[in-house]
Design goal:
The chain contains 12 helices and 10 strands. The chain is α+β, with helices and mostly antiparallel strands. The chain has one domain: endopeptidase domain like (from Nostoc punctiforme) (endopeptidase fold (from Nostoc punctiforme), Alpha-Beta Complex). It has an 8-stranded antiparallel β-sheet. Strands 1-10 form a two-stranded antiparallel ribbon. It is globular and about 45 Å long.
C-alpha cells in the first residue's frame, strides 16, 4: 500500500488565542503503588553496549519546547515525538553511532540518537520500545527501515513546502484543530484538501505506517500470514486494512500504551533505567516530576 507524499498537508483558520487552553491538564494515573526499577546504566554504557536494536521505537518528550507542549496537548500524549532506530553501532566497521529515522519539520531525516540523550539530554526524556513478535526477524526490521527511507528519496521537497506554507501560526491552528476534532478527523480533512500535515504530527504515524506497510508487503508476497498485519497495528481500534488517515493519526501515547510493544528503557536526567512496562516508566517520571498529566480523553481518539 503506497502513501503519496501529496496526501500530507493543510491549513486552517487561525485562532491563536485558543492555544491558551492547552495548559489545562488532569492526572494520568496514581503511581504511588508502583515501585521503581533498580537496574540503571550510564549513557556511555547504554550507547556503547548491545542494548539497542534496529527497528526499536524511540519516544521523546521535549521539556523546553513550547511547540512540543502544544503537540502533547493536541494529541493527548505524554511524549511529543517518535522515531525508529535505523542503524546501530558496528564495531567491526568502525561505526560507533546509532541513527534514528524520523519525520520532522524539514521532512524525513536521519538523526544521531546522541542528539537526544547526550547533546540535549537536559531537554528530552527518551523511551525505547520494541516489537518482539515470535515471527519478527531482522529482515522484517530491514524492510520497515527501507519503507521509511523511501520518503527521504521521494520526489518531494518537504523543506521548501515548510518554508513557504507553514508559519508558526498555521502550525498552532493545526494543533487547535487536532485538539478539538481529534488527530484522525483533522488528517482526514487535511487529505481531502490535498494538503500536508506538519511533520511533527505524523512522526508516530510515520512509524506506524512503516511497520504496517512493510508487513503488508510480506503478507502479499506470501512470506507471512494474514494475522501478522494485525500484530503491527499499534493504535487501538485499527483494523485491516486501515485507512491512511487512521494509520497516520497514531499518537506517541498510542505507541506508549500498545500491548504489542514492550518497554525496554527510559532515559531520564542522564540515567538509563531498564523498565518493563509503561506504568513502571511513568512511575519513574512521576517520581522525578510529580504526578504526570495529560488530558482525560483517551489518547489517539478521533472524537
Amino acid at each position: 500500500m503506497a502513501l503519496s507524499a501529496a496526501t500530507l498537508w493543510c491549513e486552517f483558520p487561525v485562532r491563536v488565542n485558543v492555544v491558551l487552553f492547552f495548559f489545562h491538564r488532569v492526572p494520568i494515573m496514581d503511581n504511588a503503588s508502583i515501585s521503581s526499577p533498580t537496574k540503571t546504566l550510564s549513557i556511555t554504557e547504554f550507547l556503547t553496549g548491545d542494548h539497542i536494536r534496529r527497528g526499536d521505537i524511540v519516544l521523546c518528550r521535549g521539556k523546553k519546547s513550547a511547540f512540543s507542549r502544544l503537540i502533547r496537548w493536541a494529541t493527548r500524549s505524554y511524549f511529543s515525538h517518535a522515531a525508529l532506530v535505523f542503524v546501530t553501532p558496528d564495531r567491526d566497521q568502525n561505526f560507533n553511532n546509532t541513527f534514528l529515522i524520523e519525520s520532522v519539520t524539514s521532512g524525513v531525516d536521519l538523526t544521531d540518537l546522541r542528539h537526544y540523550v547526550v547533546d540535549h539530554s537536559d531537554d528530552y526524556d527518551v523511551a525505547i520500545l520494541r516489537f518482539e513478535a515470535s515471527w519478527f526477524t531482522d529482515d522484517h526490521a530491514c524492510l520497515i527501515r527501507g519503507v521509511m527511507l523511501d520518503f527521504i528519496k521521494a520526489e518531494y521537497d518537504f523543506n521548501t513546502v515548510w518554508q513557504l506554507a507553514w508559519t508558526v501560526a498555521k502550525r498552532v491552528a493545526f494543533c487547535i484543530q487536532t485538539r478539538v476534532a481529534g488527530l484522525q478527523s483533522t488528517l482526514e480533512r487535511t487529505y481531502a484538501q490535498g494538503q500536508l500535515a506538519p511533520g511533527q504530527f505524523i512522526c508516530s504515524g510515520f512509524v506506524q505506517y512503516g511497520f504496517y506497510d512493510a508487513i503488508d508487503r510480506c503478507v502479499r508476497r506470501g512470506t507471512l500470514t494474514e494475522e501478522c498485519r494485525q500484530d503491527v497495528l499499534f493504535r487501538s481500534g485499527l483494523a485491516v486494512p486501515p485507512e491512511h488517515a487512521m494509520l497516520l493519526s497514531t499518537t506517541p501515547e498510542d505507541l506508549a500504551s500498545s500491548p504489542l510493544l514492550s518497554w525496554q528503557f527510559l532515559i531520564l536526567r542522564g540515567t538509563v533505567h531498564q523498565v518493563q512496562s509503561r506504568d513502571e516508566a511513568y512511575a519513574l517520571l512521576s517520581e522525578a516530576y510529580g504526578p504526570l498529566s495529560v488530558p482525560s480523553d483517551s489518547p489517539g481518539s478521533g472524537s
